[in-house]
Amino acid sequence: MTFGELSEWTIALGAKEKLSAEVRQRVSRELPSFVRDIDPKTAPKRFKLPTGESLADATRMTAIKCHSLLIARKVHGAAFFKVAPEYEALAKDLLFWVMRYNFNTGEPKGVFCCPPCTLSLLPLYSLGCFRWVDCNELKSAVLNAMVRGQSVFSSDYPKAYAQWAKGFAEACSEASVPAGSGRGNRSR
Question: What domain count does the chain have?
Answer without folding.
Answer: 1
